[in-house]
Amino acid sequence: MPVSTIEWHGGVDGICRIIEQTLLPTELKYVDLADQRQMWDAIKRLAVRGAPAIGIAGAFGVVLGFKDSKATTPAEFDRDLEAITKVAQGLRTMPLQAARERLLAEAQTILTEDKAICRKLGEIGAPLVPQGRSALTHCNAGGLATADYGTALAVFFRAKELGKRFHVYVDETRPLLQGSRLTAWELQHEGIDSTLICDNMAAMVMRDKDVGAVFVGADRIARNGDTANKIGTYGVSVLAKAHGIPFYVVAPVSTFDLTIPDGKHIPIEEREDKEVTEGFGKRTAPTGVRVFNPAFDVTPHANIAGIVTELGLIERPDAERVPAFFERHRR
Ligand code: MRU
Fold first, then answer.
1. Scanning 28, 38, 149, 256, which has the fewest C-beta atoms within 10 Å of its C-beta?
2. Pairing between strand 6-9 and 15-19?
3. Which residue's CA is the nearest one to ligand 1's atom 2?
4. Ligand 1 pocket, 52 CB below 6 A?
C-alpha cells in the first residue's frame, strides 16, 4: 500500500495532514496544516510537491483560506475569495457555511479522482515495462507526488503486482534530490529492485546496463506534446533518443494545456541559488558565484515515444496526434 501523502481531517474547520517530504528519507513525519499560510509555505518549501499533489493541496488550501472568513454577503465572499483564489466564484451567492462545505467536497473529489487515475495509469503503462530488463526514472512521480501510487511509478507498482520481473535505475535528481530522497525510498518500500545513480551517470547506464525504457512524470504538457517536467528530464530524453530507448511520459489528462501550442510557452520557475550552492546545509560552491537554477525543463515531443494517460496511450505525440486523441475521447 502506498503511504498517504495528503489527507483532510474533520469538517470545514478541519486540518490538512501531509507528509513533511523535506525530512525524507530519514524521517517519515506527518504535519498538520491549519491555515492557508501554512499551506502556501508547505508548497513553497516542497514539503508537499508533485503536480497532482500540489493540485489537491491547492484545493484544500482554498478550504483553509475560508476558515477565518466572516463573509455574510456575496461582495464580502468575493473579497475573501479574491484573497484566496478565483476558482470558486460560482459559490458566491451561497451562505458561507454551504460554500465552505462545497469547497471541501470539491477538494475531496479531486483527491478521490486522483487515486483512481493513478490506478488507471499503472494499468495502461505496466505492459510497457521491459520484462527482464531495466527501466530508468527521473525525479519523483510516485505516491508522494499524488494521492495514491503515482504516475510514472504507478507503472512500476502495477507491473510488479502483475508479476513482471524488472529493475529500475533511479536518477538522483539534482539539486533537491527527489530521486534519491523520495523515489529510491518509495521503490524500496514497495520491494522493487532498484539502483540509485547520480544524474551524470545516466548516459553510461543507458549504454552499458540494458535499459529498455524510461518513464517520467509531467508538470504541464502543451498541445503538441512538448512536456515540462523536473529539470534534467530533457537531458534524459536526449540520452534515451541517442541510445534508441523509448522515453515515456506518464500523466493524467489534467496535465495537458491544449491552449498552449508548444513548450516555448511554458513558463519555467527559477529557484534560489542556495539550492545549488549549499544544498542540504553544506556549502559546495564559492561565495558570490553566479548560479542558474531552473526547476523544470521542457522535453520536445520528438523525443517522446508515448504519453500514458488514464484515457489511453498517445503514441509519438505531436501537434496532430494530441488534439486528435482528445477529440476522439470527447465524443
Ligand atoms: O519540484 P517537484 O518535486 O514538485 O517536481 C516534481 C516533478 O517534476 C514530477 O515529475 C511531476 O510533478 C509529476 S508528479 C506525478
1. 28
2. antiparallel
3. 50
4. yes
Amino acid at 195: T
Domains of the chain (ranges, CATH numbers): 6-118 (1.20.120.420), 125-330 (3.40.50.10470)
Q: Which of 114, 199, 219, 226 is catalytic?
A: 219
Q: Is the peptide bond before 175 cis (omega within 30 degrees of 0)?
A: yes
DSSP letter for 18, please: E
pLDDT in tens, the chain (331 residues): 678 999 999 999 999 999 999 999 999 999 999 999 999 999 999 999 999 999 999 999 999 999 888 888 888 888 888 777 765 667 778 888 998 999 999 999 999 999 999 999 999 999 999 999 999 999 999 999 999 999 999 999 999 999 999 999 999 999 999 999 999 999 999 999 999 999 999 999 999 999 999 999 999 999 999 999 999 999 999 999 999 999 999 999 999 999 999 999 999 999 999 999 999 999 999 999 999 999 999 999 999 999 999 999 999 999 999 999 999 998 7
CB 59 less than 6 A from any atom of ligand 1:
no
Distance 181 CA to ligand 1 centre (A): 13
Question: Is 262 noted as a catalytic residue in this protein?
Answer: no
Report the distance separating Cα 158 and Cα 147, nearest Å.
16
